[in-house]
Amino acid sequence: MSVAMIEDKIKTPEELKTVLDALKKARKRVVFTNGCFDIVHYGHVKYLEDARLKGDALVVAVNSDRSVRMLKGDKRPLVNAYARMRVIAALESVDYVTLFDEETPLETIRLLDPAVLVKGGDWNTKDIVGREIVEKNGGKVISIAFVPGYSTTGLIDKIVSGE
């Protein structure tokens, strides 16, 4: 995959809406997920591969640096938003990446209107942000099994403790 192709995967929410509208007209199922992806690890990669299998195109919305700080505290993110988006865009399972600045991706979900909304198994489907929007529009909300032993916080703790 060339660098240009990786950059081409990164879109603003508005640019992405145009792309996704065309995919939907072609009867393609758009899958949406989101996260901080501060230190990408095996659990993230497996999760995104599984999410991609739920439809024809996978969109990943990445929390902005400000959004990560709101959720994780002032010491995070460790990696800036542009770098996190580039790493996620480089994954074969990911078709498009966008950024959101709010605490949740609710407005991005409302704008993009995916057919499938996916989160990790640590989320109960009834608690997934955007569930009502997706289900109201005839879509599905799925919780994908969490890969035990892989978390960014766990990795940070391991690095800090030297274990």
Distance between the termini: 36 Å
H-E order: HHEHEHHEHEHEH
Q: What's the number of domains? A: 1
Strand content: 15-25%
- Give the CATH level 1 class: Alpha Beta
Topology readout:
Layout: H1 3-9, H2 13-25, E1 30-35, H3 42-52, E2 57-63, H4 65-72, H5 81-89, E3 96-100, H6 106-112, E4 116-120, H7 131-136, E5 140-144, H8 152-161
Parallel strand pairs: 1-2, 1-4, 2-3, 4-5
Q: Which keywords apply here?
A:
alpha/beta; Rossmann fold; 163 residues; single chain; five-stranded parallel beta sheet; globular
In words, what does this structure look like?
The protein is built from eight helices and five strands; from the N terminus they run ααβαβααβαβαβα. The chain is α/β, with parallel strands linked by helices and 163 residues long. It has a single domain, classed as HUPs (Rossmann fold, 3-Layer(aba) Sandwich), CATH 3.40.50. A five-stranded parallel β-sheet has the order 3-2-1-4-5. It starts with a helix and ends with a helix.
Summarize this entry quickly:
This protein is α/β, with parallel strands linked by helices.
